[in-house]
Write the structure tokens for this entry.
Amino acid sequence: MAKYQNGHYLELPRQIFTNSAFLDLSDSAKWLYLVLKENEHRYTGQNENFFFRSNADLARDCGWKLTKLTRYKQELLKTDLLETWQMHWTDKETGKKSEKHVTAWRLFL
């Protein structure tokens, strides 16, 4: 279930136009933030305040190679716009943790 209603638009906070942390980012890091914002809308449930994606999935979402994602992810992580941590997802039916590491993301803007 998506955090926000499925639609043909992306809701962005107005603060991105005035927040110095966002304005000081490279264009690629800004693109990564916008892709993360889209993923937040798509993958955060009504009862959570974070979502998760693997680096490979996120690179594909951005249309980038993994090396480019790594570079701009590091730039974005130096800001106070978000927080991230490594995790496994748990299968609801079996209760077993995934073998695949994913990155959990929480956006603050």
Q: What stands out?
A: Strands lie at 51-53, 82-87, 102-107. The longest strand covers residues 82-87. The chain has one domain: 14-107. The mean pLDDT is 89.
